[in-house]
């Protein structure tokens, strides 16, 4: 797997041609191997943007390029060889084992009804080993814990051998340990990654850059250490945000409170 540059230029999206845009023109460029965090409140347009990036929806305006190629100029199979996505919703496994789920990631590399070969098995073994999944290989996917299922879905995506990996709220509904495991995994993949996150402190710790969205409008793009100011975060999330630095590590950390109400009280 080799990371590629991701270029997003003026993309927007609306449910119909005449409808108001849900995502307004948004642009950014990510160098190969960097991690971009997409942050913003509910309804900000994060999932809409991600759907444009993994070619689920065609943008109303603008383009998405991976390694200089417009993803809509590629076949669906060609796009799936370059971009993989791990979504919040996990489809029913229908009794498949963890290894069989991971094997599905090789589908874009087959033509017609061609069967899997030794090359596929080597890729599957490699990604399952990297994610410590071999002990779970023969387990029914439905019997796995939330964290284990998430690792399997990431392994399936990696089996596509993509250049860009899209992660939609990968820590959602996970306990603290499983959240930490997913975060650790993101930091070791070496791919160009776009990840949507609710946790700003996690974004600061994991991401090279962040894109802030509010009501479908981009509010800023850049390194989290410099972009995420008290004012920007407070305005975007409609809270009082204060950025501190942890004493031991010096890492930035946000604390939040509700804005104080003004005016008469009952």
From TrEMBL:
Q: Which SUPFAM superfamilies match?
A: P-loop containing nucleoside triphosphate hydrolases
Pfam families referenced in this protein's UniProt entry, alphabetically: ABC_tran (PF00005)
Q: Show where the ABC transporter domain sits.
A: 6-240
Segments traversing the membrane: none
- UniProt keywords, alphabetically: ATP-binding, Nucleotide-binding, Transport
GO terms (molecular function) for this protein are: ATP binding; ATP hydrolysis activity
Q: Does the keyword ATP-binding apply?
A: yes
UniProt similarity note: Belongs to the ABC transporter superfamily.
Q: Which PANTHER family match?
A: ABC TRANSPORTER ATP-BINDING PROTEIN (PTHR42794:SF2), HEMIN IMPORT ATP-BINDING PROTEIN HMUV (PTHR42794)
Protein name per the record: ABC transporter ATP-binding protein
Task: Provide the species name.
Answer: Harenicola maris
Q: Give the organism's phylogenetic lineage.
A: Bacteria, Pseudomonadati, Pseudomonadota, Alphaproteobacteria, Rhodobacterales
